[in-house]
Specification:
It is globular and about 45 Å long. The two termini are about 20 Å apart. The longest helix is centred in the first third of the chain and has 17 residues. The protein has 2 helices and 8 strands, in the order ααββββββββ. The chain has one domain. The strands form 2 sheets. Strands 1-2-3-4 form a 4-stranded antiparallel beta sheet. By secondary structure, it is mostly beta strands.
């Protein structure tokens, strides 16, 4: 990602990597759930890849009294990255992964609202952009309901 230097990850615990992201609004159980999610993802990645949290937010997306965590995380490879929006819902006393959406370009979670709307800020590629540095700014909206994450109609360029 253009202009960013990632921390060295060899020998660094995933909990420490997660601390680089905005997780201030997560409770202890939520932070543990995010750490556990990243550890599970890390175990499925190819050698040389690392799962890194970009941002996380806690909200009652379904207005049902049950908290959920929206997170944007990155699979960082030797010469590439890919981002994903994931929702962890609180069920049976713990958080469980319930929905995912792949994201194009650089991504940050802009907002997570109690109506289930998740807004992601993306930087995608313009025609003249080098591979390292997407420059087109967009806001993409997703809607989370009943364990499903769907695009919520259009984007703001």
């Amino acid at each position: 990602m253009c202009g960013k230097r990632w921390p060295a990850v060899a020998g660094v615990g995933l909990a420490l990597l997660a601390s680089f992201a905005r997780t201030a609004d997560l409770d202890r159980l939520g932070r543990a759930a995010v750490d556990h999610f990243l550890e599970q993802r890390q175990a499925t990645l190819d050698p040389g890849e690392t799962a890194i949290l970009q941002a996380a937010a806690l909200a009652d997306f379904g207005r049902d009294g049950q908290p959920a965590i929206a997170l944007v995380w990155t699979t960082l490879g030797p010469t590439y990255w890919r981002n994903t929006l994931t929702v962890l819902a609180h069920r049976d006393g713990r958080y469980r992964e319930v929905a995912n959406a792949p994201l194009d370009g650089e991504a940050q979670l802009a907002s997570a609202n109690t109506d289930g709307t998740l807004v992601v800020e993306l930087k995608t590629y313009a025609a003249q952009d080098p591979r390292c540095c997407p420059s087109l700014l967009q806001l993409r909206r997703y809607h989370y309901a009943n364990g499903t994450l769907t695009p919520a109609g259009g984007s703001d360029d």
